[in-house]
Design brief:
This protein is of the alpha+beta class and 222 residues long. It is built from 7 helices and 8 strands; from the N terminus they run E-H-H-E-E-E-E-H-E-E-E-H-H-H-H. Helix 5 packs parallel to helix 7 and helix 6 packs antiparallel against helix 7.
Length: 222
């Protein structure tokens, strides 16, 4: 999560919207999986990411925590991250041929790469991370086609709501010193959003919207 003021040294100097064209297409990666190694601390998973994994693999969030994901703390907030294995620190979802076994349901950060998302006020757009991909001569592609997510409007609304929730929670936790209170808050965050159960004929986005007021109340944030 970056602001526009911090992008000068890592981007091509442009900000892209969902309908814009950008040189980000890796052409199938040509058997390269460099961006799937040693990124455990970078790929922070959203509730939607975990929902996609749970639905794809027909497992629970807690089952994923056994050998696919791990909980990490940053700024007092505990969130799930991709788990890395071996000397090369390979992603737990890489198959034997270094291909992602959940590619169609991969996390948001993985979908974006080599793009990144930038937040300003009540909107988010995209930037190209120059030199981050080992491939040269990336092809032009529309941002929305590269991300390849259904229901872009609903997904963007979720991403912004999640961003605002975590921002407010980080501010609140600056004033929390009691370890037990911190543990309780983080457990509530995980229980409400990552162990979320959908009601009949409810999709993820409507379930998230339903749970959001409860979460704000339990976490004591505005």
């Amino acid at each position: 999560m970056r602001s526009l003021k911090t992008l000068e040294d890592i981007s091509d100097g442009r900000i892209y919207d969902i309908e814009d064209t950008v040189k980000a297409d890796t052409g199938g990666c040509d058997s390269c999986s460099a961006c799937c190694h040693d990124v455990g601390e970078l790929v922070v998973l959203t509730p939607f990411d975990v929902y996609e994994m749970v639905s794809c693999l027909n497992v629970s969030f807690d089952e994923l925590l056994i050998n696919k994901l791990e909980l990490r703390e940053n700024n007092k907030i505990v969130l799930p991250h991709l788990k890395m294995y071996g000397d090369s620190k390979r992603c737990s979802f890489l198959g034997i041929e270094n291909r992602c076994i959940i590619h169609g349901h991969r996390p948001d950060i993985c979908r974006l790469f080599p793009l990144g998302r930038v937040y300003e006020e009540d909107d988010c757009k995209y930037f190209l991370q120059v030199g981050s991909c080992l491939k040269s001569n990336l092809k032009e592609v529309k941002v929305k086609e590269w991300i390849g997510i259904k229901n872009n409007h609903e997904n963007k609304a979720f991403i912004l709501a999640w961003y605002r929730l975590l921002k407010a929670l980080r501010f609140r936790l600056k004033f929390v010193r009691d370890d037990h209170e911190l543990k309780t808050i983080n457990k509530s965050l995980l229980d409400i959003f990552y162990r979320m159960t959908l009601k009949d004929e409810e999709d993820f986005y409507s379930a998230f919207s339903r749970c959001l007021p409860e979460a704000k109340n339990q976490l004591s944030i505005i």
